[in-house]
Q: What sequence folds into this?
């Protein structure tokens, strides 16, 4: 009977040790696969870039759909714009997993002809990241403003002609 109890204890100990090893292995696998998503972008924007093409000088309205593609919530801390030509409206705070929010923008193209670009950075914290570091998602708005003043702003010769009174649109005295 005593040898049976010794073998029984050994059997129970072996099973317990095996379960602990399997649990540890499972935990390591979960950590491994979770760490793979740590450095990937968990906040996505659709579209990532808006190009209005050729436009007259005006204020253009647009929006970006922001989606939390992860299994954990994230918090939008702030939104940074590259210039004063852009007004941004958004809902700050926590964004649940798989939830969608919108970032609304007013983009003032200005009156000067040429390519205008506004870059917007969305700063957020991903709650699934054990380092709890702030991350950034970049989106942009672009437009090519048409020349509406009747002469080419890029042509310095035209500017010289106007200053000298030789341009056909300038009244002569």
A:
């Amino acid at each position: 009977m005593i040898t049976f109890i010794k073998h029984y204890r050994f059997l129970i100990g072996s099973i317990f040790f095996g379960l602990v090893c399997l649990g540890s292995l499972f935990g390591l696998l979960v950590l491994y696969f979770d760490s793979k998503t740590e450095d990937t972008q968990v906040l996505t924007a659709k579209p990532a870039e808006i190009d209005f093409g050729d436009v007259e000088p005006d204020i253009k309205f647009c929006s970006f759909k922001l989606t939390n593609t992860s299994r954990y919530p994230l918090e939008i801390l702030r939104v940074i714009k590259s210039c004063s030509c852009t007004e941004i409206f958004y809902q700050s705070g926590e964004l649940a997993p798989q939830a969608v929010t919108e970032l609304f923008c007013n983009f003032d193209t200005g009156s000067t002809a040429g390519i205008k670009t506004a870059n917007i950075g969305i700063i957020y914290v991903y709650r699934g990241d054990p380092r709890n570091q702030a991350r950034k998602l970049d989106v942009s708005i672009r437009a090519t403003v048409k020349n509406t003043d009747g002469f080419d702003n890029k042509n310095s010769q035209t500017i010289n002609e106007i200053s000298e009174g030789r341009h056909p649109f300038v009244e002569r005295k």
